[in-house]
Specification:
Blueprint (H helix, E strand, L loop, with lengths): L5 E8 L4 H19 L25 H7 L5 E10 L6 H5 L9 E3 L3 H13 L4 E11 L2 E10 L3 E9 L4 H5 L8 E12 L4 E10 L1 E13 L5 E12 L1 E7 L2 E6 L6 E15 L2 E14 L1 H6 L9 E14 L10 E13 L7 E15 L2 E13 L29 E20 L10 E18 L14 E11 L5 E9 L3 E7 L5
Parallel strand pairs: 2-5
Antiparallel strand pairs: 1-23, 2-3, 4-5, 6-7, 7-8, 8-9, 9-10, 10-13, 11-12, 13-14, 14-15, 15-16, 16-17, 17-18, 18-19, 19-20, 20-21, 21-22, 22-23
Amino acid sequence: MSRSATTPCCATSISEPTGEVLISILLLWLGGLLRAVPTASPVPAAPTSVAAPDSLRRSVADSLLHVQCAGYSSLRVGRILFVGNRVTKEAVLRAELDFRENDTLAAATVSRRLEANRRRLFNLQLFHQVLVQPVCRDGELTILYSVQERWYIFPVPIFSLADRNFRSWLDRSDRWQRVDYGLHLVRRNFRGRNEQLLANLQLGFNRKYELFYEAPGYGRRRRVGFGAGYSYYRSHALDYATVADRLQNLRQEQDFPIERQYVTAGIRWRRTVQHLTALDVSYHHERVSDSVLYYNPRYFLSGPQREYLEFGLVSTLNQRNTFAYPLTGQYAQLGVTYRAFLTGRTPNSLTLRGRYARYVALGGPLYYSAGATAQLRFARSIAYPDDRAFGYDVLVRGYDAYVIEGRHLGLLQQGLTYRLLDLGKLQLDGLPSTRFNTIPLVFYLNTFADVGYVRQPNVTAANVLPNRVLASAGIALHLVTYYDWVFTLEYTRNREQQGGFFFRSQFPI
């Protein structure tokens, strides 16, 4: 249901021989740094006296507990209290904790455990901040979690470009007619149970009508959840082929060359906010106009329409310190997707995709990150809209203008980040609500290198990027601010001696 925002700005082609040298130096430098970082053994927990490297940087004072309950090797949890959760149900918060009343905790590790649970609550992404305060008396703990809730209703006007990124839109001669408008409505923390409602009413160049519901968990322990949704889409334009690794577009003023709709439902198994497994089943119906088949007769392999069932299983382990802009921890995701076509003339397909990322604190304001993504797709033959690798939700930075077709892909990314400037939380006068009157602003300087490869058994002569090593390197400025927003301005050069400035709105690894 989501799509990565990859919006380059003012990308230019530059043919300088120094670009390839720069990329090689950065790749070797970052590669050597990767070998120097210990990845086999877990990173030891930082002492509680050191600020935790997340957006809040709150820690529990060990000395206070030692003074209050000196001489105790273990402490019993007497009471767990929550304040500030006027909307959020207490059961949602308790389900994230790995301890309950009357549990016994080791005194030597209680502060680190309380901090880990604080981060879990913060990573629900329901609160601006989460604080924890323990009080100990006669070996019994009273634990207070204080939360500051966000605003949960977001009616956002839609005014967007009807292309996959800014560079692609800028290349169109009719660019100003290729815009979408409407209303995007999100209701987070619905009923105070961390449920989400999402609705789209989009008109203009692309018509979209959508309604989705997501509940991560029901019951006291909130382990089993549910998701469902419906989407209808049609557009006046469709990319029907790839030539020179760029999309070829068909526009019809009166007709809609593409129309598709699907309905989906699934169950979720959720151990905590850090571990989620989702099983979804969806029915899809897609249709293209005769004009599309005139330019690409095998767009759907056979005929102007197709129907299929899709079964998807995705398991995610997210142990990063913060989900929006991680600096420490690890992330792993494995997905399996099977498409069973109902027409009987299109071969079924199986897709496996995995991703792993590691984030390491190097000391002081320096942090290192590395990630790998791999995909394998199996089918006797694949229709054109399914035969895509790089250029959409997976990208080698610097190749934003291109789409690389292929069944199998591999991507390695790494970056070195320096905390440049932390302005803390700016107070806005005139806004009484604490949900809006404080704005966190943290700037990071980042240098990075990407290497990717797409395996395509049958490549047309017009496309040169499949079956070729793709590489890029660059430097970026990251801004982390309000409501988990991350803005990135980067300069990237790729192996094709092209460079440019790019703007993105998500954490890149």
